[in-house]
Automatic annotation (TrEMBL):
CDD domains (UniProt xref): SLC5sbd_NIS-SMVT
Lipid biosynthesis found in the keyword field: no
Protein name: Sodium/solute symporter
GO cellular component, one term: plasma membrane
Length: 607
């Protein structure tokens, strides 16, 4: 109860909690050491470091996707969203089925048919190097803006339950993440994600089950949530300025998450690291199922928190500074008496943050090296020099994330801030890939002007909205909470002490700045088409007679001239004749193996 926590507003982390947390960090470090030292010979090539030699297993990749996409922001901020604004956001869970279908049948075939390892390489093949450089720059900028938030959120939770300085713990845990990401490459990242993903699931499940039991059962939770208007899911309002409706949660998140999951290099790097397209599709469907389960648990956690404090809001009485700190407060309150449980929860939040950070650090290092360092030929390119350079990039990026924690600490509502920052470029990325894969007539001019226009327009809209928010012209007041029962816990407060917040009523005409932040990616995507298609037309549409069908999605091959498709099929047939049975693996006899080793020894001595 609230009463039990007031004597210790900072919480009380026990020896058992520290032990659980230390074990989690120790396992992550051990995996990095294993792949960095004990498998060092297999980890020498750049492809092995970034893609695991394209031999990664389906299930670990699926779990890695789940762990890295459900960041600490999701673990902490989604329950806060449910507590403050109700269950509308849960619609993202079933929407993931449609998102997975789009990625599997539009994007994945194109990546595999063109042997893509860097998803932005597709833009150079389809349009031009200039288009690739522009979009790559927006991605790198976006990741550097958003990555410090992902790792700062777990430090926020740890500080809430232990009282340790938030920047100290941020630096320590970032250091562990940098260590195992540098040493082990993609294999270390994936296998730590597997461990961390399991910790996330177990933690979310235990917190929900124990919380429901302490409140008095599932029926009591649902009854309190319904009384507080927290179970409304199908709000069919067609007002684009409403913060969350069925349409924003489904259509808006469809564009946001399709781009985030299917067209982010950190995700594509995993998708193409499995042996075949069928393995990739299977991994994505497993991810979809896991995402729905954990997101549902996450959302329901917020409902349980509301039911726990339905008659005494801890934010209003000053026990919690903001909604994003509610979950660690709830965990300490409900399961703090169970030794080790707060440690399990903190391990869960840190697992989510570490998974996201390591995934992005690994992909970011490869992208920066290939696009911004290697072309300048500052030194001789070898696998060893490439791997060393990428490790330095990971180290520098990690230190930057630690330093940026000082700024992230000043942010307000974290989920809204993350979506807003991502949306500056997410719509442009989603739009340009869809333009390239679904509209054969698009050319390089249309792609460049379309994506640039999207980034410029979205920057203008978002900047205007942030100014309006700072001037209190735009606000999203949370649903009402009660303090009627606070007197039972020793707080002499009434509802009159907390005036009802209302959104500003503007009599003026509709303003683009007022649209919900969830629509930003959707608007950005359509801007690419609105500008890109006309520009392509007026600058000379793509000549389909000299077009490679593999560069667009198989779903729209019917738009291509018949002779283009026939030429593509004839080329395939000719290649099959030249190489009817490609050798997959050479097998030596025992005598040949001995001779082969002798020859290698002679070569090494000569060198």
């Amino acid at each position: 109860m609230v009463k039990s926590i007031t004597a210790n507003p900072q919480g009380q982390f026990s020896v058992e909690d520290y032990a659980v947390f230390t074990i989690m960090l120790g396992i992550s470090t051990a995996i990095g050491v294993y792949f960095g030292f004990f498998q060092k010979k297999k980890n020498q090539t750049t492809e092995e470091y970034l893609l695991g030699g394209r031999k990664m297993k389906t299930f670990p990749i699926a779990i890695s996707l789940i762990a890295s996409q459900l960041s600490g922001v999701s673990i902490m901020s989604v329950p806060a969203e449910m507590y403050s604004y109700g269950a509308q956001y849960w619609i993202i869970a079933p929407t993931m089925i449609l998102i997975t279908m789009i990625i599997n049948y539009i994007f994945v075939p194109v990546f595999y048919n063109n042997h893509i390892t860097n998803c932005y390489q597709y833009l150079e093949d389809r349009f031009s190097p200039a288009v690739k450089k522009f979009v790559t720059f927006t991605y790198v900028l976006n990741i550097y803006l958003i990555l410090p938030i992902f790792i700062f959120i777990p430090a926020l939770a740890f500080s809430q339950v232990s009282g340790i300085n938030i920047h100290l713990i941020n630096g320590i845990v970032c250091g562990v993440c940098i260590f195992y990401t540098m040493l082990g490459g993609i294999k270390a990242v994936v296998w730590t994600d597997v461990v961390q993903g399991l910790i996330m699931f177990v933690s979310c499940f235990l917190v929900v089950v124990i919380g429901v039991a302490k409140i008095g059962g599932l029926s009591e939770v649902l009854e309190r949530a319904a009384a507080g208007n927290r179970l409304e899911i199908f709000d069919m309002t067609l007002d684009a300025t409403t913060r969350q409706t069925f349409w924003t949660a489904s259509v808006g998140n469809l564009f946001l998450w399709t781009g985030y999951l299917g067209l982010s290099q950190s995700c594509v790097q995993r998708i193409v690291s499995v042996p075949s397209m069928s393995h990739a599709r299977a991994a994505l469907w497993i991810f979809c199922a896991g995402f729905i389960v954990i997101m549902t648990l996450n959302c329901f956690t917020g409902i349980v928190i509301f039911a726990k404090y339905f008659d005494c809001d801890p934010i209003k009485v000053g026990l919690v500074q903001k909604a994003d700190k509610l979950l660690p407060f709830f965990v300490q309150d409900v399961v703090g008496n169970l030794k080790g449980m707060p440690g399990v929860f903190i391990s869960c939040v840190f697992s989510a943050g570490l998974s996201t950070m390591s995934a992005n650090l690994n992909s970011l290092a490869g992208l920066i090296y290939e696009d911004y360092i290697r072309p300048f030929k500052l030194f001789k390119h070898t696998d060893a020099s490439a791997n060393t350079t990428m490790k330095v990039l990971i180290l520098v990026s990690g230190v930057y994330c630690i330093a940026m924690g000082l700024i992230v600490e000043q942010f307000g509502h974290i989920l809204q801030m993350v979506v807003t920052i991502a949306s500056v470029t997410q719509g442009a990325v989603m739009g340009i890939f869809c333009l390239g894969m679904l509209w054969p007539w698009a050319n390089k001019h249309g792609a460049l002007w379309g994506s640039a226009s999207s980034v410029i327009v979205m920057s203008w809209i978002i900047a205007g909205a942030q100014i309006a928010i700072s001037n209190k012209e735009i606000s999203y007041p949370p649903k009402p909470t009660s303090v009627d029962g606070c007197y039972e816990y020793g707080y002499n407060v009434t509802a009159n002490d907390f005036p009802m917040l209302e959104a500003p009523q503007d009599e003026a005409e509709f303003s683009i700045y007022n649209i919900s932040f969830v629509w930003y990616s959707t608007v950005g995507t359509f801007m690419v088409f609105v500008v890109g298609i006309p520009v392509s037309y007026f600058t000379g549409s793509q000549d389909l007679r000299n077009f490679r069908p593999k560069l667009i999605s198989p779903l729209v091959h019917w738009l291509l001239p018949e002779e283009v498709l026939q030429n593509d099929f004839s080329l395939k047939a000719e290649n099959e004749k030249l190489n009817p049975e490609p050798i997959k693996e050479w097998t030596f006899t025992a005598h040949e193996e001995e001779k082969y080793k002798e020859r290698l020894g002679v070569i090494e001595q000569t060198l």
